[in-house]
Amino acid sequence: MGRTYDDLVREADTVSVDGWEFSWLDGRATEERPSWGYARLLGERMAGARAALDIQTGGGEILAGVPKLPPVTVATESWPPNLKLATSRLRARGAWVVADDEEPRLPFRSGVFDLVTSRHPVETWWDEIARVLRPGGAYFSQQVGPRSVFELAEFFMGPRDGSARDPEKARAAAESAGLEVVDLRFERLRMEFGDVGAVIYFLRKVIWTVPGFSVERYRARLREMHELIEADGPFVAHSSRFLIEARRPGGQAA
User: Fold this and answer.
1) What mean pLDDT is predicted for residues 198-219?
2) Domain named Methyltransferase type: which ranges (predicted)?
3) N or C: which end of the chain has fewer CB within 10 A?
4) Average pLDDT, the chain
5) 182 vs 194: CA distance, rounded Å
């Protein structure tokens, strides 16, 4: 006999969501991955860099998996639980972790990094990124694209405007900051949620999907979600991702 609705809700509402890995969802939810392979491409760029900055590093999971880090590697993070995890992971790799808030300015001198990276930043501070890059240096990032997981967001909140994360808007912002966009790719990717607990865990962790989400606030809709999955199978949504690489003109690239 499967777990009851109450069991699924209780478990998912109490499990830790610290860090930025999703192994708790193994066997309960799936998401296609972008074809470009961000982690592999990140490793290639890190291997050739001398000084790198990873902005909004989360729990440091992605950066800690890079085979060879530059001689100078710095990461920033604002959320205290993630900051603690990132510090424990990255100090062992010789990287520095800096507590920083969610607003510019970046706490670094101008022109000190030949590589700046960020995976799924909440916001991209293009002017600040351009400022801290050396001439010839690059910003390399995988970002959340337009209308990502909107089937799930709109199930709880109704129709939404999802145009803010358009890749072409990112290109324009990068160019406005004086950077040259050398690569820009976009994909939409299928997601499946096999039970309501997986939905709750995802929404507690990826907090911008349904801002202000809590089990208590959306209890009625969660019950409807549970009944929908029980009757029709996994709830299907689509994430969107784009890859952007932009260089500061002049000098020699790392």
Assistant:
1) 95
2) 53-139
3) N
4) 94
5) 39
Residue 20 confidence (pLDDT)? 78
Cα distance between residue 120 and residue 152, in whole Å:
18
What span, in angstroms and rounded, lies between the C-alpha atoms of 221 and 44?
Answer: 44
Give 112: exposed, middle or buried? Use CB within 10 Å, 0-12, 13-18, 19+: middle
What angle, 0 to 180 degrees and rounded to 10, lies between the N-to-C axes of helices 196-205 and 219-232?
A: 130
Pairing, β 180-193 against β 235-247: antiparallel
For 208-231, what is the mean pLDDT?
A: 96
The predicted-structure confidence for 121-170, as pLDDT tens digits, reads as follows: 989 999 999 999 999 999 999 999 999 999 999 999 999 887 778 999 99
**Structural domains of the chain sorted by starting position, each given as residue range(s) with its CATH number in brackets:** 5-247 (3.40.50.150)
Contact 83, 105 (CB under 8 A): no
| Cα 51 from Cα 112, distance rounded (Å) | 7
Strands annotated E in 47-156:
51-54, 72-77, 96-99, 113-119, 133-144
φ/ψ region of 111 (left if φ > 0, alpha if ψ in -120 to 50, else beta) reads: left
